[in-house]
Structures are given as C-alpha cells and as structure tokens.
C-alpha cells in the first residue's frame, strides 16, 4: 500500500530523467524553472523566457534545444530582421530556371528567438502561423514544419528602448511565460568554481539527452494523461472567474484554456501520475495565465482567483 | 371615543423633602373626620411616623397598603358599620379600590400631607394596542386613586391599590440598566438552583459538543462505509474533513486536499496516503490498488486523525 500511495516520483532513470538532468546542468539552481520548461515542452507548447540580461535565458534555451536533439536554429532578433529571414524565401535557380524555396530557421525542430521584442511586429507576426499551426505559407505555398517544432523566445523586460512589445495575439500562442530569476548563493558559488580554468569563460557544451522520436513518444503519453470531468469543470470555472475579474483587461481564450489543460497534463506526468489533479491545474496557472491576461495585471489576481474558486474534492 | 392625554411623569424619590407643603393650601385637603382621627393617626404614625417628612413617609404608607392588603372588588363593610375605612384597615384587610384610595388619603392627611381622592379610568398597560397606539378602556376600568399636593400646586398621583401602577418616570439609561441588572440579580437569586443546573448542562453540552458530533459522524462512517472503493475513500475524507472542521482546521473552498493536508500540524504518511487515495478516487479512471488495502488505509487514517490530533495534539 505504501509503495503505491506514497508521493509518486518519476523514475530516476529514463529519457525524462536525462532531459531533466541535462537542463539542470545547464541552468544551475533553478529546478523549478527547468520543471516548468519541461512541462511546456511535453505539452507541445512554446515558451517565452522573460528576465533581466545575464540570468541564463539563452543558456537554458540553447541547452533545451540541444537536449531534445534534432535541428536547432537560433535567430537573434533585430529591428532589420525580415519575415523571410525566419520563414524562408524563394530564389531563382539559374540552372533549372525555376524558383527554389530556401527554408528559414522555422524549419528546425527547435527555434530560439533571442530578444524577440527587438524585431518589428511584421517579423514577429511571421512566427504566428508557424507557432499556432506548425506550418508556414511562402508565395502561396504551404510548407509543413516538423512535428516537434518548438519555439523558445527570450525577451528583456527592463530595456524598452527600441523594442516592440509582442501583440496579445502572439502572446496567446506561447504556452507560458517564465522568469528565470537569480540563482541562490550555493548555485552561484558553484558557477564561479566551474568557471575557474576556462580561459574563454565558455560554459560546458550542452549534451543531447533524448532522440526526437523519444520526445514525440513522451508527448504522446502526456496527451493521454486522464483529466476527470470534475477537473475540467474546475478549469472552466477558473477561466470564467478570470474572465469576469474586474482587474483583468483580457480574458482567457478557449485556446488558452486548452493550453492550460495540456500543461496540467504534462505537470501530472512529470509528477508520475496518470491523471490530473486540481493541484496540477493550480501549479501551472501562474506561468500559463500571466502570458495571456493582458498587460498590467496585478500580481495578486491569479492567486486570488485560485484561492476563491471552489476545488472539486469529491467525484460527482 | 378617542381621548388623547399627555402625562408628565416624575420620579418622586428625586423630590426634595420640602416639596410637600405644610402651609399655604386649602385646609380642607387635610381634613380627617373627627371620629377617625385618633385611630388613623395611630396607624399612620405606626407605619411612617419614624421616618422624616417627605416621599419616604408617603411611600411607606403606600407600601403597607400595597403589600399588606388585598384587592377585593366585591368586598364591602358590613351594613351599618360606622367607619368602613377603619373596618378595612383593621379588620378585613381587603376591599375594593375606593377603600384603598380613601384609606391612603386619610392616612396621608393624618400625617399632614394635603391629599384628595380622584375617580377616573385606568389605562391598563396590558390592553395597550401598539398598532393604534391607544389603550381601550371600559366600565371595568373605573378606578379611584389618591393624589398628594406638591408645593408648586401640582397634584402627585400615588397608587396604594395592588395591581395598579402609576406611570413610571423616564429614567436615564444608567438607572434603567442598574434596575435591569438588579432585577436579573434578584431573579437569579430566587432561581439559583435551577439556574445552576441549567448553566452546568449548557457548559457540559458546549464542552462535549465536538465529541458528540464526532461520535455521530464516526458511527455513520462505520455503519455506511460505502459500497465501492471510491465511496469508501471519499467517505473517509469527508469524515476527516468534518473532524478537522470541529477542530477549527476546516479546509477552505479554494484549497486542494494536498494544500489542506500540507498546512495541518503534525501531518504524517497516514494522511498523505489517504490524500493520494482520495485523489485516485476523485480524478483517476482506474483504482490504484486492491479494495482490501483501501479499507485498511482508510481505517488507519481514521484511527490516527482524531479531533484532538487535528487540533495539534499527538496521536
């Protein structure tokens, strides 16, 4: 009895543990951030990392891209970046006398869009179709992206000079927004110790932890995590409470609600449970909601909603 | 016929002794029939002669009549008796209100207070109709009462007849409170035995209400454990939630089971296992373990998590 009912834990070995280990090695002292990024990845959602410079956003993004294997592309967003630089473009082949499509970085398995708010809205919107539908249309021709296409975008919330805030429609396409935050003292001490003896100051090269096919298998298992009717009712009640909250300018969209359920499934899977509980829903609520409720939402809104909507404890 | 009257009230105890005049009034209001004067003076002096002149003397006479004599509307002096008032005061000690009023007026006159007897209708407080704010009166409410003259020429209504009262003076709230407390105190002293028993019963009930409620809940859980493993698990959680509520550790509506268990003092594996079981029961499509183990887990948690334990005590 004890073995079954004790707090479930994911196995210490296996692809998920390798993935977790690789990310924790890249981003020291931030297991909770790593766990949320993993949930986002398993839920097939895109992640927006937002924090001050130098806190490891790009390091985490690069480590994740490498850890999940497949093709990796990185775009350093600047104001002169064109949509075609992301989606790809057609060039005329002198030999064949035909236009040939040159795929852009979105055709990678993992796309890291660094400082995404530095590029123009026109270029930002080029990511919309890719993120939402995993396909791009160039010259009226539709090109399908890889099944595991995953966008990790980073942005700096402090330096607003010369930036273009992401439009709400595009923000809704991210599964969650995360802040990395400063590491604790012990982790910073370990960081300093690891840098001694490395003249160029380079970090350790991230390693690949899982094959793309394995990751696809994990994502399929996450999609199969059971969500009871009462938990879905709870999600709907929470969404209604968020929409009617007087301090929330932008209500939660049905797409946002679907994302919330998917991320909660991933969270339950990471906890080793084959079903979602209201605790999973609550745990992922802040990063999932903060990206899609509009600007200037007070910090107490989400905890307030979670504290007031009744939790379904008993089955119907 | 609707008659509206306006009455001024006062508290006679606040009157200075000099309020009752000794001169400057119609001497007819102190007349006492000669044949009665000696007896009345004797009775009046016995009842109030030892007191200083003033309201104390007046109220002493009134109290003697109200407490020592009985109202008998059909009582009357024997035919031919020369002095019905003396017969009332010294022999029958009962009679109708006119004898009370006459006796009081004559006794007060014997003590030197100008007094008279009045006839009118008594507005009984029990007949007051709050809706119309009127007190209906009938022939049965005909009443006689004495009045005492004050120095300023006003007549002070007094009431010697038991069962009748003058309109009390409006008192400041401090005095009303003191009167109420005194009345409550007197009532408590009179009913001390019953009051003590009632208080002890209430204390006993309050002290044991949690235990009694817990016993009822536990009996219900024992007799109706649930047919399926889900019902058993959820029934056990419900029982523990009730116990926690009795101990003041109620789960908040927006709180999950894990959050609730997490904030309980001395939480242990028994409760964590039950919480995990309840989550399976509520949210999982399949059972986690054989039914026999469900019952064992439930019984273990119920045995350990008593009301006392929820309050922070040791199991």
Please report the total strand number of chain B as a whole number. Answer: 5
The low-confidence parts of chain B are none
In whole angstroms, the N-to-C terminal distance of chain B is 78 Å
Q: What percent of the residues of chain A sit in helical stretches (DSSP H or I)?
A: 40-55%
Instruction: Outline the biggest β-sheet of chain A.
Output: 5 strands, parallel
Number of strands of chain A: 9
Largest interface chains and counts:
A-B, 28 and 31 residues
Beta-strand residue fraction of chain B: 5-15%
Proportion of helical residues of chain B:
40-55%
What would your notes on this structure say?
- The complex is a heterodimer of chains A (316) and B (315).
- Chain A has 316 residues and is α/β, with parallel strands linked by helices.
- Chain A contains 13 helices and nine strands.
- With 315 residues, chain B is mainly alpha-helical.
- Chain B has eleven helices and five strands; from the N terminus they run ααβαβαβββααααααα.
- In chain B, the strands form two sheets. Chain B has a three-stranded antiparallel sheet with strand order 3-4-5.
- Chain B starts with 33 loop residues before the first helix and ends in a 5-residue tail after the last helix.
- The mean pLDDT of chain B is 90.
